[in-house]
Amino acid sequence: MKKLLQRYKIIFPSEHGSWPLTLTPFVIGAGVAGRFPLPVWLCLLAILALFLARQPISLWLRIRRGKARRADAPAAIFWSLLLSGIAALAGIGLLLSGRQAILWLAAPAVGVLALTLGLGAWLGPRRLSVELIGVVGLALAAPAAYVAATGTLDTTAWLVWGISALHSVISVLYVRLRVDATHRRLSPAGARMVVLAHLLSLGIVLGTAAGGWLPWLVALPIALLLVRAVYAAWRRPPLDNVKRFGFTEIGYSLAFAAIVIIAFLIAQR
What we know:
With 269 residues, the chain is mainly α. It has eleven helices and no strands.
């Protein structure tokens, strides 16, 4: 048991950018709800446990396919079961707290997790398609936090998922653009795709706001991210410091979450 516990490092994802992609949607959902009862913290525990369980489960799948060391199997199984158990207990706590509506989110979340793990083991975890499916699933943390706070799965819950998913997708594409530009493998078509994805996201937000579903202020951070993407696609600046770039992206994510929360809170008055 002691040796298995000492292998705790296998639970941490190698992609440090996955942390803000998980926590930013949660912050948005809880912030828009504007309250933080015990179920919100149980929800956070469940989300973090499932998030951390991805690595040991993925490792176990790679071992099964002969792509990782068999000596790591006991630790992978131990941490997979432990973290899955913690997530299950937190989920039971949510149900006992009257948050049964969260079950409507649990099923697709587990489904996306299984899909990304399967595709990751088959295609490789760093394939763009696998990453995009994964971040859309991680964005379910937004409605989960909202439901945990309010007890209802209403239109606002789906709106915070949608805006979180859009932000996560364009964030992944932007990071890919910067990395590809640094390694001189960014094609004109790839640069255009990233800009078009930002334009499409802004169009979706503006259209939803025009329909009276979203506050207009939500379009502001998307528009600013579009300007940033256009500049990066045009000038293709290299990444001089990857760690600093990572922290900068975390800052942008927090600023995005803050503006979205403020927009919803103003609209609710």
